[in-house]
Amino acid sequence: MTALPRPEGLRVVHLPARTPYAWKLQGPDFHILNGTETPSGDTVPTAVNAAWLLDHGPLTWLDVLHLHHIDFEDIATLERLLDACLGYGVNVVFTAHDTRPMVGNAEDFTARLQMLHSAEVTWVCLTEGSVTQLAKILGERPDAAIIPHGYVAPPETLAELERESSSQAGRYLMFGASRASRDQLSTMANWSLGITDPHSTLHILLRAFSPADFADGGRAPLLLETARHDPRIRLTMRPYPTDEEVIRAGLASDALLLPYLWGSHSGQLELAFDLNLLPVCSFTGHLPEQYEQHKGLVEEPEWFDWSQGHPNLFGEKFLAALERAAARIDSRPRHLDREFLDYRSQEHKAVLKHYTRVYGGDR
Hints:
single chain; alpha/beta; 6-stranded parallel sheet; 13 helices; 37% helix; globular
């Protein structure tokens, strides 16, 4: 079996490749195949899945399969893909973004992790704490490379940009898909009733709703109804917000609301650091460790702890944090931190070096 030439280094397919986290992983030793044509003339989807890859074998046209979020994959199909990669010498890398499921149940999530562990794929974790948590799930510590999340907004993209200034009160942003792990509804209601300044604004950038958001007690109708009653709240909906749209929304804001009921790591938290936004953030998962990685270089988030206590008290914890954040916004600088962006550039060079080793490009 003869592999195709590698004029640009290792050929990597990300499953999926819809986030800045995946797209920034390109360097002199490896490049991304998502969005490009295979030798057969088919274009690799950005959001490629296991079934598509199996339908486009033999897998001699890629060198590395980089797995990210596997919750939506049929486990039997994923197992067949791992077997195919083994047969064709494709190196499989799995970044454990989550240590608890974002969708589905814990049993299915654990089964997927156990399968990856048994297949001896190469593991990457974003924090030391996540490795410790995975060891509890798997029964033994995975041999994982720890590589930090890094930037979301590329420093070179921000080089000629600046935060939009405003003499009015705080401008708040919340964005992302409507998930069970993210409490958009009570966050919006508490902001609307708790922040009384008539000049404050809340921009909610939404990913397009699906029928599931309206069925079986879905919260989309209540979300829309709540927003309708406060003219300071602006809803923007996109099919899937582009990186440019998210960055533009962030540059026109002062604080980013991160109301995670649970979670592991957060790219949104890293974006807040990139744009020098004040994160109003749930103290959950490994998010505090993400902040610790940059402590002294970025402002500490305004934390609120939803991990313990009665759920009926979550509202007062969030609103207290929101009030503290409002006071901090009045006094904090509202410009991009160029020194931090320089640090991000150096951090990214180190990240690429780590991935060169993980992908096998230094062999």
